[in-house]
Design a protein that fits this description.
With about 170 residues, the chain is mainly beta. Helix content is about 10%, strand content about 50%. Strands 1-2-3-4-6-7-8-9 form an eight-stranded antiparallel beta barrel.
Length: about 170
């Protein structure tokens, strides 16, 4: 039987190597700053959360590779790579965005999640403005999937603002 830790590490390595190979497709890339609440469900170690995510151009199958990170007011940090899947609810207006990522977590003086390797899964609802910028709300769960002895998990609630990179850096 394959050790779960080796399997997870191998999967993380594949995702990390795969993200830079993204090619141009249908939608443009976005830079997405976010602000929110860390430990929104249990409220044992609540903290403010500040994040930044780069959302690559969408693939033909609506997958959007992402790379990002956040920091909490307790000194916790999390850097990750993964993917979003854009589900169109109303064309050019409303999107439901499930996501999954894998990354490295440091707890600072906040919540201890059991280890460095952590997974994030979540759901986001985005409204697209006429200028193609988007504003959204996201709920995420962070957990180590039981690869460590301790796996308390954590939830975050975020408000984000996605800006097309063409508006920032020019086309």
């Amino acid at each position: 039987m394959i050790n779960k830790r080796y399997f997870v590490l191998a999967a993380a390595a594949v995702v990390t190597l795969f993200v830079p190979l993204v090619r141009q497709a249908y939608a443009e890339s976005y830079l997405t700053p976010s602000v929110g609440y860390y430990d929104v469900v249990r409220k044992k170690d609540p903290a403010a959360l500040f994040g930044l995510e780069y959302r690559f151009d969408e693939w033909s199958c609506k997958l959007r590779p992402i790379i990002g990170g956040f920091a909490t007011s307790d000194g916790g940090t999390y850097g990750y790579v993964g993917a979003n899947y854009d589900v169109t609810l109303m064309p050019n207006q409303l999107y439901l965005v499930p996501n999954f990522s894998v990354g490295a977590y440091s707890d600072g003086s906040g919540r201890q999640l059991g280890g460095t390797l952590e997974f994030r899964s979540g759901i986001e609802l985005d409204y697209q403005l006429p200028n193609t910028q988007q504003v959204g709300i996201a709920f995420n769960h962070i957990s180590n999937a039981g690869i460590y002895n301790r796996n308390p998990g954590e939830e975050t609630l975020l408000v984000n603002y996605s800006i097309p990179t063409g508006m920032i850096f020019g086309r």
